[in-house]
Amino acid sequence: MITQTIKKAGLAAVLAGTFLAGNTLFAQKELTVDMSETIAPIQPTMYGIFFEDINFAADGGLYAEMIKNRSFEFTISMMGWSQPNSDRHSYNNESGYALPVKYFEGEGNLNFLRVQIKNAKGYELHNEGFRGMGIKEGDTYRFTFDAKQMEGAVSAVKAELLDEEGNTIAEASIPVSGSEWANYKAEIVPNKTVMKGSLKLTFEGTGELGLDMISLFPTDTWNGRENGLRKDLVQLLYDLDPGFLRFPGGCIVEGRTLARRYQWKKTVGPVDERPSLVNRWNTEFDHRLTPDYYQSFGLGFFEYFQLSEDLGAEPLPILSCGIACQFNTGELVPMDELDSYVQDALDLIEFANGSTDTPWGKVRADMGHPEPFNMKYIGVGNEQWGPEYIERYKVFNEAIAEKYPEIIIVSGSGPFPDGDYFEYGMKELKKIGAEIIDEHYYRSPEWFRENATRYYSYDRNGPKIFAGEYAAQSVAIASPDNKNNWETALSEAAFMTGLERNAEVVQLTSYAPLMAHAEGWQWTPDMIWFNNLESYGTPNYYVQKLYSTNKGTDLISVTQDGENLVGQEELYASATLDSEANEVVVKVVNTSSEAQEIQLNFEGKRLKSKGSIIVLKEADLTQENSFESTQEIAPVTEELKVKKDVATYEVSAYSLNIIRIPLK
C-alpha cells in the first residue's frame, strides 16, 4: 500500500522504490518467500512452557489452596496462623490457646493442632492466606478440616471469611463429634469481593479439640476438579497452545542441599500424606526475603502430568542428577551412592507409562489415572556443569537407554550460553551422543537481537537443542528492577525468528520464569503476573503466544537478495507452511524506530487474494502491561490484500507481525 508518508516523499521516491520515514530514507524491502521446498519440520514441541515454583507460582498461585500452612508442617509450625485473643505461652489466659503437637515420626503429615477452648466466645484462630486471600462475591468456597474431640465438649467449628477490615463476609458452622479423626466439610458463599481476606475460626463449647489439614478452595477450579488449580492462570497457559510442559523447575529441582532437593516420589499419593519442604527460593535473594515460602506439594508430579494432558502438551519432567545447586552448596552424591537417584528416574518412567500391574503404574492408577501419560522425554539435571555433571549424566544415560530406549533424554549445558562451563559441557555431551541439550540464556535485549544467527553455526547432525530458559533482562540478571517492557519482548521476538529458522536444530523452546505473584515474587522478569484475584499476560507472554499459535508445520525460506533477514536495517523474518490450515505464515519483526515498507513475493504455490496480519506493537519501548491496563500491549488483527502472489505491507516501528495467507 502507498502510505501518506510515501506520498509526502514525492513521486520520484515512490518510483525509485523508496519511502521517507521520519528523517530516514528507506528502500522498500523485497522479500522472497519460497514455498516450493520445505527445509525442516517444525516440531509440535517447538514452543512450550517452563514451570517452576518460584515467585509463589504453586502454593499461593497455580495451586488454588487459600490456607497457608494448612497442616502445621512449616519449620515454624504456627507460621501463617495467629491467636489474637490468646497468649499461647500463658496457660492462665481466659479464652484458650492452641499448640502444635507432633504425633508422627518420619515423613508426611507429622503435626496437628491441639486447641483448648476455655471461653468459646473469646477464643479465635486466624489464617492470613498467601499475602491475603482473594475472595469473590457469589462464588462458592469449600472449607474442609480434620478434627477429633480430645477432652470436654467442643461441639462445633465456626468458619468465617473476613474482609480487610475484619468484617464477616461469609460463615458456616460445622458440628464435630467423636474421639477419632474425621473429615468435615462445608460450602461458603461470600457476599463481597475482597483482595486480601482472611479466615477466622471460633468454637462452640469448651474443652480440647484436635485440628489438622484445614483447607479452603474455590469450587470453580480448572476443569472443575475438587481442590484443583486456579482457573484464570491455567487458562492463560491453555491459550498458549504449548507443545510441552517442563516441570518442576529449574533450580528448585536441585535444592540448596541434596536433602532439600525435589523428590518426585514424595509428591504423589494422598495429598495429606505428602511431606512439606521449605522452598529453596525463600531466602535466596536479600532484596526479596520470603521466609514463609514452603512447598505443600499439593501440586505434585501427578498433577503436573495431569496438567500437561489438559494442555495437550508433552510432559517433560526434570530430575536431580545428584548435584545440589552449584550456586549454593554444590553438594555431590558420591558415585557409589548414585543408584537411588537413577532408580528414581526409572521409577518415574514406570509411574508415567507403566501398566497398572507395575508398582508405580498402580500408584498412578490408584490416583485416578489408569491410562498411561505416554511420557516421551525426561531431563537429567537442570543447569549443572563440569566433570561432576558429565560423570553422573553418563550413568543415567546408560541406565535409561538400556531399560527404556524409546525415552528421549534431555541433558544440560550449564547456566550460561557461552564461556568455559558451556564449551566444556557441549563438547562432552556431543562425545556421549546426547540427543537434546538444554541451553539457558538470561541476557540483555541487545544480546537477543545480536544473536538471532546463533544456531546457523550448529552442526545439523549433532544434538538437538532445547532453549529451555530465556528472557531478556532490562537491567541485569537477577536484578529486582528488571521489567517486562516492550523492548525485552520485541528483542525476544527478533531472536525467536532465529530459533524458527533453525528448526533442524532447535526443537523445544520456553521462556522463564513463567509466573509471579505481585507481592510474593523473588525474580524478575516473569511472563505472567497475578495477585489474589487477577492475572495478566505481559508483552513477553503475547510474543510467546503469537509464535506458539502460529508456528506452522514446515520451515520454508524467506530471503532478501538471497540472504536471510536477520537484523539488516533492523528487520528480522522467518516463514513456515501450515499444512493443517493450508496457509503460509510469515513472521516479520521490526526493531527500528521507523516504519518500513516490505513487498512479499511468494513463489512455488498460488495464494488466495486475502490474508490477515496479527500485529503486536508499541511506540514506547519502556511500556508494560499492568493490572490497571492488562491490554496496553496486545495483538490486533488486520486484513491483508494479495495481488498476483505479491503482498505489500508497511511494517510499523517496534512491531511483531504475523502474516497468514491461505493457499489456493
From TrEMBL:
It is an enzyme of class 3 (hydrolase). Transmembrane segments: none annotated. InterPro entries: Alpha-L-AF_C, ASD1_cat, GH, Glyco_hydro_b, Glycosyl_Hydrolase_51. Residues 1-27 form the signal peptide. Pfam families: Alpha-L-AF_C, ASD1_dom. Keywords: Glycoprotein, Hydrolase, Signal. It comes from the Bacteria. The keyword Cell membrane does not apply. It catalyses: Hydrolysis of terminal non-reducing alpha-L-arabinofuranoside residues in alpha-L-arabinosides. Residues 468-655 form the Alpha-L-arabinofuranosidase C-terminal domain. One of its GO terms (biological process) is L-arabinose metabolic process. Its EC number is 3.2.1.55. One of its GO terms (molecular function) is alpha-L-arabinofuranosidase activity. The keyword tRNA processing does not apply. Belongs to the glycosyl hydrolase 51 family. This is non-reducing end alpha-L-arabinofuranosidase. It comes from Leeuwenhoekiella blandensis (strain CECT 7118 / CCUG 51940 / KCTC 22103 / MED217). The lineage of its organism: Bacteria, Pseudomonadati, Bacteroidota, Flavobacteriia, Flavobacteriales.
